[in-house]
Design brief:
Helices cover 32% and strands 16% of the residues. It is α/β, with parallel strands linked by helices and 97 residues long. It has one domain: 3-Layer(aba) Sandwich (Rossmann fold), CATH 3.40.50.10330. The protein has a three-stranded parallel sheet with strand order 1-2-3, with helices on both faces. The chain is globular. The protein starts with 5 loop residues before the first strand and ends in a 10-residue tail after the last helix. GO terms for molecular function: ATP binding; NAD binding; NAD+ kinase activity.
């Protein structure tokens, strides 16, 4: 999978919003309709919200924990993001309506 275009989405918390700004400045920030992957920044609730919001886009979503609970999220790091996205293992999650 080519990962050239990343769309960053963040929860409303200040730490998630600040992280989104830094990552977007470093790696670029594509609109959802042009992205290869979505990076969700927040906690588990935001990850579930992002999965529901992007369900029809057929895009992988990679979550990084910038919230308080992050069982569904990957550990946060600003470094080597494209490499980590390419190496991520896919997990299929079926969302109920």
């Amino acid at each position: 999978m080519g990962i050239d275009r990343i769309a960053f989405l963040a929860s409303e918390t200040p730490v998630a919003q600040e992280t989104r700004e830094r990552l977007a400045a470093r790696y670029g920030d594509s609109p959802l309709d042009e992205a290869d992957i979505v990076v969700a920044l927040g906690g588990d609730g935001f990850m579930l919200q992002t999965l529901h919001a992007t369900e029809g886009l057929d895009l992988p979503v990679y979550g990084m924990n910038r919230g308080t609970v992050g069982f569904l999220m990957n550990a946060f790091s600003e470094d080597d993001l494209p490499e980590r996205l390419a190496a991520a293992e896919e997990a299929i999650i079926n969302l109920s309506p």
